[in-house]
Write a structure and sequence with these properties.
The complex is a heterodimer of chains A (about 500) and B (about 350). Chain A is an alpha/beta fold. Chain A contains 16 helices and 20 strands. Chain B has two domains: about 70 residues, no CATH class; about 260 residues, Orthogonal Bundle (ABC transporter involved in vitamin B12 uptake, BtuC), CATH 1.10.3470. The chains are: A alpha/beta (about 500), B mainly alpha (about 350). Chains A and B meet through α10 and α11 of A and α8 and α9 of B.
Amino acid sequence: MALEIRDIYKHFGPVRANDGISFTVQEGSLHGILGENGAGKSTLMKILSGFYGADSGAVILNGEVLELGSPADAIDAGIGMLHQDPLVFLPLTVLDNFALGSPGPIPLDRSEILEELNRVSSGLGFEFDPSRLAGSLTIGERQQLAITRLMWLGAKVLIFDEPTTGISATQRLQLFATLRKLAENGLIVLFVSHKLEEVEDLCDSVTIIRQGRVVFEAEMPVPPETLVEKMFGKVFVEQGHDAVPLGDALLRLSGTVLTEGTTHIKDLNMDVAAGEVIGLAGLEGSGQRALLRACSGLLEPKAGVLSIDGKDMSKASYRDHLAAGVHYLPAGRLEEGLVHGISITEHFVLTSEDKSFFIDWKAAEKEAESEIGDYSIKGDPGSHAEGLSGGNQQRLLLAMIPDAVKLLLLEHPTRGLDVESAAYVWTRLLDRRLEGTSIVFASADLDELLRYSDRIVVFFGGEVFAVRNASDIDGEELGYLIGGKQRV
Amino acid sequence: MNLSRTAMATVVAFIAALGVGILLLLAVGAPPFETLGLLVEGSLGSASKISITLLAWSPLVLAAAGLVVTFAAGLWNIGVEGQIIMGAIAATWVARTIEGPGWVVIPLTIVAGVVGGVVWALLVGVLKTRGHVHEIFGGLGLDFVAAGLATYLVIGPWSRTGVASTSGTDIFPEEAWMPTIDALGVEWPVIPVLLGITSVVLVWLLLKGTLFGLRLKAVGNNAYSSYLMGIPTDRYILGAFAIGGGLAGIAGTVQVTAFHHKLVPAVSGGYGFLAILVVLLAGFSAVAIAPIALFFVAISVGSTQIDLRLGLDSAFGGVLQGIIVLFVLFAGGWAAKHPNSSLTPQEEP
């Protein structure tokens, strides 16, 4: 038995998420799929698990071309997917969760299903109390429950999407043991990750995807520097800006503890000087967003100090932060930034300093026109936000940043912009440093991090893994750090 | 282009709805065209009928104008019925308690109506912003409470001297009647109509020309983005409820001081729910509610004629209103979902 992925193409509008992906995985192997954020791993896994249809190409299991129209088709064909958040219904018991996947007739024979649960779980070395509510299980136990269910349904291929997110070290060891056992029993296990160490520990073979294509295939072990280079490509960057004299510490974090969802950041210590640019590197969900949200007042620290301009802001509200000169620009443009059904002009009116009761539409439109020209937004004053392209939405958001800001918090500030616009946007942002504005930005783009940061803070698994002066490191080293490895 | 497509879809839906109405009439054995003719005659056929229609139009338009504001803020103010009733109850209290000339009592009944409606609407708003109770559930619950309170007052503390019946309280003293103007041998409800027109104009101005209106719209379309922009979203939600409830409360005042001249259990006349249909049909536009409300009350008022003359239940009017709304909403949704299909042969290549 072998799983063959043949020439998979999947486009979302102009984005080529999968651009002709082909590879084969043999029976009984633990196969790693590596790639940075946005490389196309998730899209491919969603195609394998029947969630998306591919534009073209085939998935072949055991010589048979599979028709994957829905997740149910994929499970019938023997492909099971374990999502990052295990698909478990928290208000239901373990037994009910297990029975949910039952293909059997209505009504369910619970005693028979209970026997099945015991049989399958003991075969895997798991122990469950069938009457417990799934909500009281740890993430690791929920994973085990989901694995048990998929095995019972006859999975021959199991896909694990970042399975070590949010589980403890012991549970990780246990999970890895389970994965090895599953592979020994002849299953095909696909392990999707961006953590180099885990792939090195666990996998027999590896496929690296970059920009929607397979760029590397090999049997493990492979030297880590090769993996890094293949994952990120070669990055050569010179520092793109002149340093400005830095002022006193504007943002100060000391012993700060943040918790959001599965992200836990313990003991954060960091000073950001006025006029400094800090780049936050790391794979998505490693803690960068939690930090930005905490600095903007949207996430209250569990403990520790968070002070801005010498004032303790750890208990202050979002609006207090706004008043203190903090501006946060999140990544979700239409979800957490712009308002659909509202024009460009109206957006500028909403964020304008002028708070008079009646709106002077003529003046507002003029103002909008000048901003549109300034930021080269492709749209009219009357264009609605949802009608703009992603890049133009980003330009609009950047144009809406007020003039007097002390601390600018940005999430992927130039994602979706072409190189020239990105450079232009950064020129505008860096100009603000002259007035003492500090910039803290998260990015997945190594080039951007190296080019515009003074210092780079690398997050890994909810901890600050490394802090480096941008001028002291190169793309290769940054790639290592993001993957959770120090270069020896 | 898009606008004309939507307009076209609306016209088609309208004709289709009328067609279904005619089929329905045929099915129950009623003469369809005579029935539709009676609807028009019964509502607009004479000066006195027009004045009745206008008197019914005013509370409907007031409630609908308030709903335009709450819809702009993204709120389903199902509690509008209760807000009308509480406005009516508060106005009744003034009419029964305060003695004085009309120019004192009448404005006070209006103020009382506003207070009653605002309080009831803010309850829904506070339940939503503080308790995370969805406004549909909060509003629906408070509708029942208000209706129960009205019934209790009518048969209990405010019952007619000597009799406790659901037919209503004692008639108000004439000082508490909204004055009318005599012309063409008919009493015209000038004040209610002026209140209705004013509400439409003010709501239109509020949403078109003010920062308050724009922020309301932003909160309604994306509360989280608005919050990030620094708009105090809860305050705007409460503001929208207050305006919607205030206008509904005035509608309640009109019902008791201009129409019934007493408090009755079903004082709202169902205008709250009907107003929701009007606003949906108007596509949430303040200007469009005036003619559409007129069309709707014409059907309602006219349908009493088909009861008298054809023995057909006057509920047919409501059925026809419902069918029209459903067809138009369906057509609008369909046109939005199929932007590339043409309803009519395309003129341009």
